[in-house]
Fold:
Amino acid sequence: MLSVMQNISTQVANYLLQIKAIKLEPTNPFTWASGWKSPIYCDNRKTLAYPEIRDYIKKSFAKAIKEKYPDVEVIAGVATGAIAQAALVAEELGLPMIYIRSSAKAHGMTNMIEGDNYVGKKVVVVEDLISTGGSSLKAVEALREAGSEVMGMLAIFTYGFEKAVKNFETNNCEVSTLSDYNSMIEAACESGYVTEEDVENLKKWRIDPENWGK
Structure:
């Protein structure tokens, strides 16, 4: 699981810190829905409120997709955080866009995939954030079951958990990100956002996030 380019990775990390899409609280951790204690909280939906940042992410995604997957036919977003990102990228590339729900709709057509003309097509999935990879890979599985060819996935940011790396390898899905945890820590250090002691805490968390802080 690699960042697309180092200069993009650093710039995106700086942007996320600048607008507090990433918040770091090593001494006052957040509690995730999973119950994990975490010194970091990431909400990449905030990038949509800043035209300059939104445009940079859109163009970085489009550039990476053109280089890595020139034969792509459809852009897919993972609900809900990546729907807008996928729409922006699809518009930039002049391609159709679809999105994948976290679960099948409970009424109407009971769709899990919303959109059209994706069966048998080459699809690149856009995601906003990768933690363990579970929800992201659920979207990949839905596309494959529908008959789409998933070429790969691109995300704005990843925590870089070993569990996620293994999950994507097991499911034979290539994934790249615009930025990652290491780039974020480097950017936070350079800007004075965190101390050296904080960095040690942040590194320990990523090694064993499930038990950190207990």
